[in-house]
Design goal:
about 5% strand, single chain, mainly alpha
């Protein structure tokens, strides 16, 4: 779920202030004091910015002090009450947050940012229908420009409510409004993986890779699982190596080293999706998830020695309490039967997948390569050699290492002088435009 703070900061630059002039009297009633409401609104917006900044740092006292000052300057400014709602939400006062949101909307029921933020808040409170209503109101306002982000928020809210079909519909709308929105593409990958549509998840993976230059640990872990589920060990291993090299201290990298990402967050979502299909699907889910490797005692020891949390809630690793259970023998017998069924299902699935997968080619000159799986009745993707920027790298050093002219690297990667490289950036070592499809 998206944080609300960026919306409030954006309001500081997008709000249109009306320059209405009012006349009041000071201590000398014969001398009028001219006050400009536009100036008061500007001061209030500055106080809101300060208040939200303090709130982000955890200084709630200074945050509220600045918000109160903003309210004194502009008591009818919508952003003041929306900021108060965010403050009350942060300090754990949901009832006061609702009152603040409702008051803000009573001042301007067409404020799209407030409607979206209110919907996000209601979703976190578990009020999914009301949340959907508020965010759809925001999207319906013609002047609202953050439509893709609101659709993505709606999708995430529906996933939380386990309404998977509606979540997919909203993600499709988010991608339609912003085709290169990496976060929406990543969420669609996650959803298709949960629905066991690995081919479609792979398609969105390729789109995600094209839309972003900055990979994340969870994205690489998901890419590993997508290819692993299709039986493509070589490509999945490439993604696993990238995960360990780019994010060596991440939870995902440590889990890959320990158990080859036996269970990730997307697996939790897959369990919820299968459970939503009915009791028969739920039973099938339990058979497939069980794995003899997952119940090994050494893996439990490795987790504790590395200071990591348990893999996932659905882990089947035995505990001392489970071993002491009087019905242990019955449980073990049931698991053995389930494991045999799982091995049979996986064996048939692997044979079916192998018939539809052709051998891919890869460029071994680069440190790591992104290889696209050739699919039946689809246009194959062409692999390009890449270099992942590490600490101490420079464009000159990279060009020298691969014996490539710097101007070529600059052109292929759309770089501008001075060349600013960040750790984790992916550089093409060949011209993407000149790559031909077979």
């Amino acid at each position: 779920m998206k944080k609300l703070l960026p919306f409030f900061i954006a309001l500081l630059t997008t709000s249109i202030l009306t320059a209405c002039v009012t006349q009041n009297y000071g201590n000398d009633k014969d001398t009028p004091l001219i006050e400009n409401e536009s100036s008061n609104n500007e001061i209030a917006m500055t106080r809101i910015s300060l208040g939200l900044g303090y709130l982000k740092m955890g200084n709630t006292q200074q945050a509220k002090l600045n918000l109160e000052k903003a309210k004194r300057f502009s008591p009818n400014l919508v952003q003041v009450h929306t900021a108060f709602a965010h403050y009350y939400d942060t300090v754990g006062e949901p009832d006061l947050a609702i009152k603040a949101y409702e008051h803000a909307l009573s001042l301007n029921g067409q404020d799209a940012d407030t409607l979206n933020n209110y919907g996000v808040f209601l979703c976190r409170q578990g009020n999914y229908l009301a949340a959907e209503k508020q965010m759809l109101k925001a999207i319906a306002i013609p002047s609202y420009i953050l439509v893709a982000q609101s659709y993505e928020n709606l999708a995430l809210c529906q996933l939380k409510a386990q309404e998977f079909d509606k979540a997919q519909t909203y993600l499709e709308k988010a991608i339609s409004h912003s085709p290169n929105r990496a976060s929406s593409l990543l969420q669609m990958m996650r959803l298709q993986y949960a629905k066991s549509d690995y081919k479609l998840a792979q398609t969105y993976l390729h789109r995600y890779e094209k839309s972003t230059r900055r990979f994340s640990a969870d994205a690489l872990a998901l890419a590993f699982k997508i290819f692993a589920q299709q039986g493509n060990k070589r490509i999945s291993k490439n993604y696993g190596n990238m995960l360990v090299k780019m994010f060596p201290n991440s939870f995902e990298a440590k889990q890959y080293i320990l158990n080859e990402l036996y269970s990730i967050d997307a697996d939790k979502l897959a369990e919820q999706y299968k459970a939503s299909l009915g009791s028969s699907k739920k039973n099938k889910k339990r058979v497939v998830v069980l794995s003899p490797q997952a119940s090994s005692a050494p893996e439990t020891v490795s987790l504790s020695s590395h200071g990591l949390k348990p893999i996932m809630a659905n882990s089947v690793m035995p505990t001392a309490q489970q071993k002491a259970n009087s019905q242990e023998q019955v449980t073990i017998a049931n698991k053995q039967r389930n494991i045999q069924n799982a091995e049979s299902v996986q064996s048939h699935a692997t044979q079916s997948i192998e018939k539809n997968i052709e051998q891919e080619t890869t460029n071994d000159k680069a440190a790591l390569t992104k290889v696209a799986l050739k699919e039946k009745n689809t246009t194959p993707m062409v692999s390009l050699p890449i270099h992942i920027v590490e600490k101490g790298d420079s464009l000159f050093a990279i060009s020298k290492h691969y014996n490539i002219v710097m101007k070529s690297l600059e052109h292929w990667n759309k770089l501008r002088h001075p060349y600013i490289l960040k750790i984790g950036d992916v550089l093409y070592l060949a011209n993407p435009k000149s790559a031909t499809k077979n």
